Amino acid sequence: MLRATKHIAHRDTTKRVTYLCHKIVVSTNSQYSTLNYRYGGASSNKQQQGHGYGGKHHYYRHDFLAPHGPKAWTIPPNRGYGMVVVRILRGALKLRYLLLGGAIGGGMTLNKKYEDWKDGLPDLKWLEEALPQGEKWSQFSKTLIEIGGAVKDVIEIAKDDLKAKTTVAALSLSQDDSRRKYETLQSQVETLQTEIMNVQIKYQKELEKMEKENRELRQQFLILKQQKKTGTKKIKKSLIDMYSEVLDELSGYDTSYSMADHLPRVVVVGDQSSGKTSVLESIAKARIFPRGSGEMMTRAPVKVTLAEGPYHVAQFRDSEREYDLTKESDLAELRREVEFRMRASVRGGKTVSNEVISMTVKGPGLQRMVLVDLPGIISTMTVDMASDTKDSIHQMTKHYMSNPNAIILCIQDGSVDAERSNVTDLVMQCDPLGRRTIFVLTKVDLAEELADPDRIRKILSGKLFPMKALGYYAVVTGRGRKDDSIEAIRQYEEDFFKNSKLFQRRGVIMPHQVTSRNLSLAVSDRFWKMVRETIEQQADAFKATRFNLETEWKNNFPRLRESGRDELFDKAKGEILDEVVTLSQISAKKWEEALNDKLWDKLSNYVFENIYLPAAQSGSQNSFNTMVDIKLRQWAEQALPAKSVEAGWETLQKEFITLMEKAKKSPDHDDIFDNLKAAVVDESIRRHSWEDKAIDMLRVIQLNTLEDRFVHDKSEWDQAVKFLETSVKAKLAQTEETLSEMFGPGQFTRITHWKSLTEDQNKRRYVKNELDKILKNDDKHMPTLSYDELTTVRKNLQRENIEVDTDYIRQTWFPVYRRHFLKQALQRANDCRKAYYLYSQQGTDCDINCNDVVLFWRIQQVIRVTANALRQQVINREARRLDKEIKEVLDEFSEDEEKKAHLLTGKRVTLAEELIKVRQIQEKLEEFINSLNQEK
Questions:
Q1: pLDDT at 311 over 60
Q2: Is 310 in contact with 222 (CB distance < 8 Å)?
Q3: Burial code of 97-119, b = ≥16 C-beta within 10 A, e = fewer?
Q4: Residue 452 above 60 pLDDT?
């Protein structure tokens, strides 16, 4: 479908053709063209498919469906061949493309297309008369070329005219208004500044590209160098690693920076959430620190040593593990470890700690320096903080900044008002002249939106704050996204400074004052400059300190070698382990004697109070034996095994302590170890416990032993009688002591020692006299007093004007009766001494009551068997387990510096520790100075 608005004037094909085309819209939705024609007064519609209807004297009417209705064209007969051409080209090959291309491209192109098209037509002889031939077609194409040239001339004339008019207008405006000329010049200056900035950025990109290539080459070189040296000799430490080791040795030696530790380090200080940690991460090129939204994350000083290396890795000073900083998983683990170490360093209810977390970060292109990240300064404390948190942070910050050679990296949040800053006042106090301060304005991207640009320029030019600094820098350390990588942050920072209005319009900020890269270069340069200026003085100071300490040691301890706590601890550890070895060399006989004594000491009270006395006071032999069997079995099933294990453990403990005490009497004994040895022994004993299965094993053995009720030979009988007499005498001695306290000393003692009886002792003496009468009348009296006997005693005492109650009488009766009973038991034991043969013949029906001896024989047998079992357990298991626990305690103490400092004390230790540390520092300083001079 072809829709067009045309006005065509065509008089002669040889004359000039004026062709004006307003609009051409081409639509190819249909394969055919619709031709309305009128022939002989009749009209019809035909679909032309490459065939034509022709005639020299026919009249045609074509409807083109123009916007304003159909337009009728009437073609004279002498021009019929032109209409035939138009009809054929429209219907067959869409001549509209050919006409348009010829008008624009020229007649030559049109001619070529026409020839190509003509060769591709089928054999249509009847069209030869209708198509233009020879001169006619050449003239037609020449006319089209002339039309194209004319149009081109008109366009050029219009351009020249417009240019002339613009020039005249600009000259007129410049003459009329000088102010606009000035603004134009100023705009040109700003444009030049922008171009300069772009050139600078382009230069930096090229420089970074070259540096990256250089790093890659250097990385390959370092790898090859490392591979070459591996296996032949130890790789030489880098300069910054040597310097970092010196600072590690100094940590804790001169905490007040008042003596010798004036070595430079970069101290990063700032308000909380000001971006301190982000600046450090940007310099380290890795997000190595934990992050929190408004929460205090830095709770302890973190010393970060930056060094160049082939791989981007991080490592703690006290750990062998390396974290690959190119892997997000390792970065996450590193951040968790840093947070864990910070929280572990905070003890005793504190919020911040002074313990330094030392870390090394290596990677290609890193600037060599040592930075210390400190907790942010706070103005308000929260309820979960310790009450001294604010003061502790202030003191810690002043402590690090008071080092006269520390480089202060003062971090200021650009997104908040400068008047709200707390850090600038502290910096001015420690460095009023600004000779070692570098000011860093962070979050400049937010500052550009929130603050006055002129105010920011004043800050970076050093005209807003009263504090002075060596340099002023502006950085962007992120977009507030935790997941952004360092590469993304650096790109964002670079794009910001490239497009920021702060640095493009009337800016006084130089390009070297922006970006974290320029900051790290400046800080590193200043750091090494201060190191070279001060290192010789520090080495001389430590050399003098070492000489003084060595002189003092020779005067106080002339025959001793200076030994630090670690060496002394190792020596004490060896002595303790030697004593454990000696423990296993104790003879079996000595073990059994010690265990026998301890067992009876633990069991005697139960045997007398719960078994022997209740059974012996029952009144008959049969009831005695029955009660003894029942109580012995209950005892063996319940309390006896546990008490036996307890006795075995106490025996082991006693023997070990005895050996330790003997070691103190040795001529080689050094009393400096006494506190440490005692602490190790106490802790090991506290942890040690007997094996649980020992109780079950002892229960079986003891039950089987107590089942034997018959004494086998005379020697065992004699031992049982002796054991009975010894036990009864010991218990009788205790009873006599109780009676002495109750009734007071005897008459002889009162006279010789000038003592008198108390009122209660006098009263009890009267009660005792009445009770003795009862026992004298009934030698086999029962253990308790009857009601009548109590009444009789009270009435007799009343005649003496002594008022007592029945409880008072019973309290006095108990020790009196016990002494009476024990004396009878001793008499029975003596009677039974020679009655073994009679017992062996008659058994339990013996005329002499020797059940006491049999009971104590059974007790003696179970103690002997138990002691033997415990001895085997001690030798085979418990001594080795104790040895293992002592080693574990020693290992724990060796890692606890506070514990060692508490247990190994005295002038000898402190002086030796200081001398050893100063000697190490001085030697490391000399080694570092030699390497530094070689690098120059």
A1: yes
A2: yes
A3: ebbeebbeebbeebbebbeeeee
A4: yes
Residue tagged 């020692």 (tokens): 753
Measured between alpha carbons, how far is residue 401 from residues 246, 248, 263, 551, 785 in Å?
19, 17, 12, 33, 88
Would you say residue 393 has pLDDT above 70?
yes
Q: What is the pTM of this model?
A: 0.52
Q: CATH 3.40.50.300: which residues of the chain?
A: 261-540
CA dihedral 546, 552, 554, 557 (to 10 degrees): -120
Mean pLDDT of the chain: 76
Rounded Cα–Cα distance for residues 537 and 262 (Å): 9
- Radius of gyration (Cα) for the chain, nearest Å? 57
Token pair, residue 53, equals 């209807």
Instruction: Classify burial at 431, counting beta carbons within 10 Å of its beta carbon; exposed 0-12, middle 13-18, buried 19 or more.
Output: buried
Question: Regarding predicted confidence, which is higher, 415 or 859?
Answer: 859
Strands 407-413 and 266-270: parallel
- Percent of the chain residues past pLDDT 90, beyond the cut: 18
Question: Which whole-number Å values give the CA distances from 404 to 322, 370, 430, 521, 828, in the listed order?
Answer: 34, 16, 9, 22, 93
Q: Which CATH superfamily is domain 261-540 in?
A: P-loop containing nucleotide triphosphate hydrolases (3.40.50.300)
12 has a pLDDT exceeding 90 = no
Helix, strand, coil abundance in the chain, percent, nearest 5: 60, 10, 30
What whole-number distance in Å separates Cα of residue 501 and Cα of residue 268? 29
Pair of tokens at residue 387: 């009450």
* Residue the block writes with tokens 């086999």: 780
Using alpha carbons only, give the angle 220, 226, 232 rounded to the nearest 5 degrees.
Answer: 150
Three-state DSSP at 32 gives: coil
- Alpha-carbon distance of 474 to 508, in angstroms, equals 13
Which of 75-79, 548-552, 780-784 is least confident?
75-79
Mean pLDDT, to the nearest integer, of 714-725? 92
In the predicted model, what is the mean pLDDT of residues 455-478? 81
Q: Which residues of 455-471 are buried (b: 16+ CB within 10 A; e: fewer)?
A: ebbebbeeeebebebbb
Smallest CA-to-CA distance from 518 within 463, 438, 447, 590 is with 438
Proportion of the chain above pLDDT 70, given as a percent: 70
Residue 557 vs residues 900, 909, 911: alpha-carbon distances, Å: 21, 11, 10
- Closest to 144 measured CA to CA, from 275, 333, 18, 26: 18
Question: Which helix (H) or strand (E) is 453 found in, with range?
Answer: helix 453-460
